């Protein structure tokens, strides 16, 4: 039976960050990935902060386009209200290339990365995990990092976390279309192939948060909707995506272009710190901790942050109390934690309708020069709605 200092399950951003940190600490590290290669199982739009990723993994990030514009479309019925702003230091990247690069950095630091390997069970003795059973054999280790994503079977089997319910989860669906570089530039009014667009959508009936990201020669588009709403309306996610593409006019834009990828993912609304980040010598990170924002789909930065801390904890044998404290104090993770109450309010169907209707009315009044109308709208909704809207708009940047 092979023995390692640290075994990492999952080679997404969180797992690769954990493997990298543990390897840099001089530990013998094994990282396993159940997919055919890192990045093959994801549904992220992959807009990331270049400087943050580089601060952990170094130079060489394989990004596709620099995000020149972020566009936000709020739909009140069939008519959207559009807002645009210029971000700084954001890039788009394909998750397959991105995740493969992250794992290669961990490999270069000394970690062993093995794909097509599934973790089946942790074996425990007196509250300590002693070995991991995989479909290719059993390995022992001093510590284990579980970066297995939302479907955290090992974490649930070990009693570290509970399964999510439809009342506390969002169903996300993504499509990627192959589009020529020059066609992307023309479609979205981009000056050249180095510049990109990130487009966010919010609409009701049903409640949807959507995204679109431009890559070099492809475009990713997707939506997320609370599962409880899909169930109550008896709607399938793929039908919601088709309706979304029709309503936004994107279906016509992609006519004649081939569908390169289709994927789906469930995103729990809750997560750390309402759940334990580990048990004994086992540390959870990334999506396994629920560190993804269902409003903006941002999970990569907190995944890397938590993976870094998990790798440090595993290499040093930190207690769960100290690991919990380090997670809470991390800026990337504390931001997600502080946003939990906003998520709960914004993801309520009735509340979301009120927010969108109010903002649409206010912006329409502004466009028509009705300043008095804006004042009335804001004053009548300020106490209950405006603080959430301001916070939501800040998050979208």
From TrEMBL:
User: Is the keyword Electron transport in the record?
Assistant: no
Which cofactors are reported in the record for this sequence?
A: FAD
Listed name of the protein: Nitrogen fixation protein FixC
Give one GO molecular function term.
Answer: oxidoreductase activity
Q: Which controlled-vocabulary keywords does the entry list? A: FAD, Flavoprotein, Oxidoreductase
* Coiled coil feature spans: none
Q: Which InterPro entries match?
A: FAD/NAD-bd_sf (IPR036188), FixC-like (IPR039651)
Q: Which residues form the signal peptide?
A: none
* One Pfam family from the record: FAD_oxidored
